[in-house]
Amino acid sequence: MSSSRPISLMRFLIEEQRAHQHINADLRLLIEVVARACKTIAIAVGKGDLGGVLGEAGSGNVQGEAQQKLDVLSNEILLEANAWGGHLAGCASEEMDDPHPIPDVYPKGNYLLLFDPLDGSSNIDVNISVGTIFSVLRCPDGVTEPRAEHYCQPGTAQVAAGYAVYGPSTLLVLTLGHGTHVFTLDRELGSFMLTRRDLQIPAQTREFAVNMSNQRHWEEPMQRYVGDLLAGKEGPRGKDYNMRWVASMVADVHRILTRGGIFLYPWDRKDPGKPGKLRLMYEANPMAFIVEQAGGRATTGRERILELAPTALHQRVPVFLGSRDEVDAATRYHREHDAAGA
Ligand code: P6P
């Protein structure tokens, strides 16, 4: 077979296992099982109205959000796929209040899997790209029944992270701590094939992603930062910017990984009790790991996301991530504001 053909996810993982000590058989199985679950979710998402799975499930999740039928189905697909392999000590999901133990009938492993089974699900009924986000941690030694506090590890403890984006093509973007790599689902083979190895985000950008309808609720440094972007080449940044907002984090982050940009979801006064909209453990941390492994940055506007010490499984956090120089600029606005007020 010609060497120009892309290699499969399985071959990539086996070659990574040979080349580095950071991946073992259980972690390889975990990634393959999650990838297979994402293929099943892609099929369900792709059926749309024909699958009878659009619309609300009639239930709510711990976030207080109405669950879509596909949210619940995607969650079940991931739980069932990961139950029997003996690679996990437990799972945690945006869609479940508490961590989900591995059934006693199956052996347990040393990894913890956290996921947002279907991110951006409010876009499903209008046929906009959605995705699955996942993060992998080690279960603390000696813990056989992991509780929420055992999942609350800093993002730097992640051994792997990835997302699937269900768009015009179905992609799996993955990091095992040695670069960020893109796999495209070959629907005829039914396999994810390596199409981009060691992706690098452009350090600079002219594109930002934010929900502008929240502008009046932002704190001063965020107002000033975005105001300077909108001022364009006549303003302090000296260049014109473009704006995109899909309202599906996976779609926005994938565009940024591919062509550069900055994703912004800051704290706002709309709900002062919430430190942000996005969840740290299964949205911000995995995306931050992926972005940093591609040469980008991810902060809260003040601190590196991966170094945050989590206090709760479903805690929220402000998110500024993407092109290195642009995230540094946005973070500088916030730090200078704080220093002036100190
Ligand atoms: P807004 C989807 O609900 C999500 O969690 C992310 O995927 C997305 O980036 C964000 O919320 C969109 O939020 O306030 O623009 O609807």
Structural commentary:
- With 342 residues, the chain is α+β, with helices and mostly antiparallel strands.
- The chain folds into two domains: 9-196, 2-Layer Sandwich (Fructose-1,6-Bisphosphatase, Chain A, domain 1), CATH 3.30.540.10; 207-341, D-Maltodextrin-Binding Protein, domain 2 (3-Layer(aba) Sandwich), CATH 3.40.190.
- The chain has helices spanning 9-19, 25-47, 69-81, 148-151, 220-231, 249-259, 280-293, 324-341, and strands spanning 56-60, 66-68, 88-93, 100-101, 111-119, 130-138, 160-166, 170-175, 180-186, 191-196, 207-209, 242-243, 262-265, 278-279, 297-299, 316-317, 319-322.
- The protein has an eight-stranded mixed β-sheet, sandwiched between helices. It has a five-stranded mixed β-sheet with strand order 12-11-13-17-15, with helices on both faces.
- Strand 11, helix 5 and strand 12 (242-243) form a beta-alpha-beta unit.
- Helix 2 packs antiparallel against helix 3 and helix 5 (220-231) packs across helix 8 (324-341).
- The longest helix is centred in the N-terminal third of the chain and has 23 residues, at 25-47.
- The chain is globular.
- The chain starts with 8 loop residues before the first helix and ends with a helix.
- The structure holds 6-O-phosphono-alpha-D-fructofuranose.
